[in-house]
Amino acid sequence: MRAVASGVVTFSGVVAGTRYIVVDIGAGRRLTYGRLASASVRRGDRVVTRSPIGTVVGTLFFGLRVHGSYADPTPFLGVLVGRPRLIPTDGSPRRPAPPPTVRCGRPSAGPR
User: Fold this and answer.
1) What is this structure's pTM?
2) Chunked in runs of 10, what are the mean pLDDT values of the chain (112 residues)?
3) What is the number of structural domains in the chain?
4) Which of 50, 54, 62, 71 suits a disulfide with 36, CB 3.0-4.6 Å?
5) Is the residue at 43 inside a domain?
């Protein structure tokens, strides 16, 4: 598992048998990574985008809190992008569009 944004680790430990890492990324925003098999960071460590923070086996929990309230973390995971395509005007059947892809990148400002 790699960090999706830079920040400071505010929690790295186990709660009720589940390992979590919480990273404060500034502006009142905290990212939570849960259901981790192991953690390679400790409280107070600074992480940068894409730096390893732990390992995942199975399903990952990923959450975002903004000033203590949960928010949609999608902007930190990527954006679905479809390719533009032409539609035939001569009456021939349409071809199926290719599936959209996820374009990952650093969010400019992220949710507020």
Assistant:
1) 0.71
2) 94 96 96 96 96 92 94 79 82 84 60 46
3) 1
4) 54
5) yes
